[in-house]
Design brief:
This protein has 171 residues and is mostly beta strands. The protein is built from no helices and 11 strands. The strands form 4 sheets. The chain has a 4-stranded antiparallel beta sheet, with no helix packed on it. A 3-stranded antiparallel beta sheet has the order 3-4-7, with no helix packed on it. A hairpin with a 2-residue loop joins strand 8 and strand 9 (116-125). The radius of gyration is 25 Å and the shape is flat.
């Protein structure tokens, strides 16, 4: 464990202190390719994922055990087990929960092969149909009985911009 301190020139005031740990780099011993059949799945939909695993020393990870887990909005929503075939391939079906708040999803695959345990992650979005709309008057404020332009910004539940178009409004 190491400690780093940032101080002023006279060493009379410590501005910041941070502890950190340096670990030895261990290269990955498995090559993992986790793919979804589609880019996105809606609430309540079934999904399909495939995982291909090969060993860094060569050859498919035949017989490797795989524990899958689906996380939606940070909570475990589904889990399943699989085993790689002779080609290092495994396919699973999962179901996205019906009640989704934000739509941030990740499928995890923990591969165990002869004592080596590594994880593959595939993030995706579950569209919720929820949007936030913010209105921004030109000049910063609306003035009664004065014509002005109002710009709007539409984002999804994860704060990402969404393309939207509205017509002109005259009041």
């Amino acid at each position: 464990l190491f400690r780093s301190e940032l101080r002023d020139r006279d060493h009379s005031l410590t501005v910041a202190r941070q502890e950190f740990e340096v670990r030895r780099f261990l290269p990955s011993q498995l090559s993992k390719k986790l793919e979804l059949a589609r880019q996105s799945y809606g609430p309540g939909e079934s999904g399909l994922a495939t995982l291909d695993v090969t060993r860094a020393i060569g050859g498919a990870a035949a017989g490797a055990d795989v524990a899958f887990e689906l996380l939606v909005d940070g909570a475990a929503a589904w889990s399943g087990l699989g085993t790689c075939d002779e080609d290092g391939h495994v396919a699973i079906r999962f179901t996205v929960p019906k009640d989704v708040e934000r739509g941030e999803a990740r499928l995890l695959a923990r591969v165990s092969d002869d004592g080596v345990v590594e994880t593959a992650v595939r993030p995706f979005v579950v569209p919720t149909g929820t949007f936030d709309v913010a209105f921004h008057p030109e000049g910063g404020a609306l003035v009664a009985d004065a014509p002005t332009r109002v710009y709007f910004e539409v984002t999804d539940a994860l704060g990402r911009p969404v393309e939207a178009e509205i017509g002109r409004a005259h009041v």
